[in-house]
Specification:
The chain is an alpha/beta fold. Helices cover 33% and strands 26% of the residues. The protein has a seven-stranded mixed sheet, with helices on both faces. A two-stranded antiparallel sheet has the order 2-3. Strands 7-13 form a two-stranded antiparallel sheet.
Length: 254
């Protein structure tokens, strides 16, 4: 199984933290967010593709030159230079699939997902069921408004709302997707709709034509989309690794 990590956004809500480097390289507990992600999946994945925009491609390249991984990592430049030109999650996914000739079951992760659970469980679930997404109960409907909200029966997704004003539940998508080769073939048709911003919209589309499954993850999960969420992740990890203080010190004074 291949894994595509989407890291081509411009994270405007995290300025000025990401003025000179992408948020996926921001430190948590002494190492970049993306390294936490890779260390959770590298035992189960054949190859990783990280898609970056052109603005931060050199940052990722420099990081990769100094990072040792047990699995092959490929950097893909989507050649976008500004937030206004961005391809969107669906656009970047299609770009990598086409450019790298990926034609198999694929795990897709947002590069700002910080989580602490064994992905082996969701991979086994995927093998037994089919296309699925990782779900997390945020236990707060106000907070749920910022995410893709799901309703499930058993483990089958019956409704999917992207950032709704009135969430029907607090069970949200974690932007952890496992999609079968066959279902990825539907991406070409969905791409023609022009709805390219969020992969959750593609999942919603799939759920209308076939059964898509939700897997409730256990453990911690953070969506590092805002400074507040980044600071929360720092606070809740600081006692696990005191080196984070020094990492942040050198980052802000770099």
């Amino acid at each position: 199984m291949k894994c595509i990590i989407l890291a081509a956004g411009f994270a405007t809500r995290l300025y000025p933290l990401i003025k000179n480097k992408p948020k996926q390289l921001l430190p948590i507990s002494g190492k970049p967010i993306i390294e936490h992600i890779i260390e959770k999946i590298d035992k189960y994945i054949d190859e990783i593709y990280i898609v970056s925009n052109n603005k931060f491609f050199n940052n990722f390249n420099e990081w990769l030159n100094n990072y040792k991984s047990s699995v092959k990592i490929n950097l893909v430049n989507d050649n976008v230079n500004s937030n206004e030109e961005r391809l969107g999650g669906v656009g970047d996914l299609k770009f990598v699939l086409d450019k790298s000739n990926i034609n198999e079951d694929t795990m897709i992760l947002a590069g700002d997902n910080l989580f602490n659970f064994d992905v082996k469980d969701i991979i086994e679930f995927f093998k037994n069921n089919g296309t699925c997404i990782g779900l997390y109960d945020v236990k707060d409907k106000e907070l749920a408004k910022h995410y893709g909200v799901t309703i499930i029966e058993g483990s089958i997704i019956k409704d999917f709302q992207e950032k709704p004003n009135n969430p029907k539940s607090t069970l949200v998508s974690t932007a952890i997707y496992l999609i079968t080769k066959k279902d990825l073939e539907e991406l070409d048709r969905f791409y023609e709709t022009g709805d390219l911003e969020n992969i959750g919209h593609f999942i919603h589309h799939l759920s209308k034509i076939k059964e898509i499954y939700g897997f409730k993850i256990k453990g911690s999960w953070y969506d590092i989309g805002t400074i507040e969420e980044y600071e929360k992740a720092e606070r809740e990890n600081i006692f696990k690794n005191k080196i984070i203080f020094f990492s942040l010190f050198f980052y802000f004074y770099d």
